[in-house]
Amino acid sequence: MNDVGSSSASAPGSADPAQVCSAPRADDRRVRLLVVDDHPVVRSGIVGMLSGEPDLQVVGQAADGAEAISMTTELAPDVVLMDLRMPGMSGIETAQAIRNRADERANTPIVALTASTEPGVKEAVAACGMDGYIFKPFDAERLREVVKRLLEE
Question: Vertex 46, ends 145 and 32: CA angle to 5°?
């Protein structure tokens, strides 16, 4: 797991998002994203940030882990953008559940969205099989860059 911290080189956990691992895209269709966050305003903000990006398409929004697991099956997103702290099933638990699946969706790239600077966040994200993380707050340019580079690797 490689981290994709903030765009500032001095920020905790920052690294070049090009280091995030994922399978290369086989076609040139729009990247399908699932946004998972328990706060509707955050989900709306992310959708708004990405709405002007012609290569990216938000195909779904989930408010919790159970909904994210279901929508990963139903919508087959190319990338899941997931908050780590959610009531009920956390982002870590949700990622583990997705990784433990017995189908092709188990390998869906997952990027953690977190405001946490607590020690151990990077390790927890790696341990659950997420492909990277980005610190909140982030801007549209940074989010677009992370998603695009994730899929270029």
Answer: 65
Exposure string for 51-66, b = 16+ CB within 10 A, e = fewer: eebeebebbbbbbbbe
Distance CA 70, CA 77 (A): 11
Q: Which amino acid is at 101?
A: R
CA dist 38 and 92 (Å) reads 14
Q: pTM here?
A: 0.79
The two counts, helices (H) then strands (E), for the chain are: 5, 5
CA distance 148 to 153: 9
Question: Which strand (E) or helix (H) includes residue 96?
Answer: helix 91-99
Q: What is the pLDDT of residue 27?
A: 52
What single-letter amino acid sits at 72?
T
